[in-house]
Amino acid sequence: MNLADITQLTALLSVPQKIVIVPHKNPDGDAIGSTLGLWHFLKNKGQEATIISPNDFPKFLKWMPGAAAILNFESENSQSKKAIEEATLIFTLDFNHLGRIGQMQPFLEAVKVPIIMIDHHQEPSDYALVTYSDVTMSSTCEMVYNFIDLIGDTSEITPEIANCLYTGIMTDTGSFKYASTTSKTHRIIAELMDKGAKNTYIHNVIFDTNSPSRLHLLGCALKNMVILEGFNTAYITLSQDELDTYKFKKGDTEGFVNYGLTLEGIKFAVIFIENKEEGIIKISLRSEGDFSVNEFARAHFEGGGHTNAAGGKSDLSLEETAKYFVNLLPKYQKELTK
Hints:
By secondary structure, this protein is α/β, with parallel strands linked by helices. The chain is 38% helix and 18% strand. The protein has helices at 3-12, 29-44, 77-86, 105-110, 140-150, 159-172, 183-194, 199-207, 212-223, 240-245, 293-300, 318-328, 333-337; strands spanning 18-22, 48-53, 71-72, 89-93, 115-119, 130-133, 226-228, 233-238, 268-275, 280-287, 304-305, 309-314.
């Protein structure tokens, strides 16, 4: 973010605004943490602010301070549309293309008010008046902290803000183990703890609270894992019938894809999850080292993300998608086995 952007944002926030804050569809810890962290900050500055999520988010994130105030565009449609129509300023967080917000896309495309993007994914589009994009940042929550710092207001970070931002940084860095975790990330985490972030509680509620059905679903996923040693690759499939058998709830498969990377020698891990309601196969991709799952997802599965973490989708059946994926691997054998 350059000086001109900071000056423009400071000017916008120096007067009363009706602000709408939007995360991506199927929001994760970083999306919810960053939107709530910014929401608390703006409200404490005297601004009127509303978070509108394109759809529901996982139960394990609903403990977060302010989560009950988030509007669900799918189930609170009239209220959400009214907030967008009345908005004088819009923030979009943790995505960089309006295609990531599902049914909300045409409504944000139609607005005539300034949009501010804060995001750390690769290849941002140009829909925003101010684009704060930094792919070197661990998370959008780290960027929100940096945004607050750039406008000189870190002294106003409350325990509520600290807990929200800590959550997003922790989840998007895999508990600080991913390569995107820098020394600056740890310094920010230390600051957030000093300002009231409850690190042990957050870790426990996010990672250590399971239902029997989720553990059974994990067992099913691990049983379905296919290991392709010749490509240093592992993939998991989960059908809609399997999800239904184990009473799947939104967020239950979070982190399942990472189990493939725990295997010795595996460099590329993928999970394919059937979603009959949307008529697609949802895909999460992870890698270690310099193999770019962002480029792989963009080239083959209408997706993208980061070098080592990306998402995508397929309109083929679950079986056909897995077969298509396996047939792609010979093209990447050299990269995956070097």
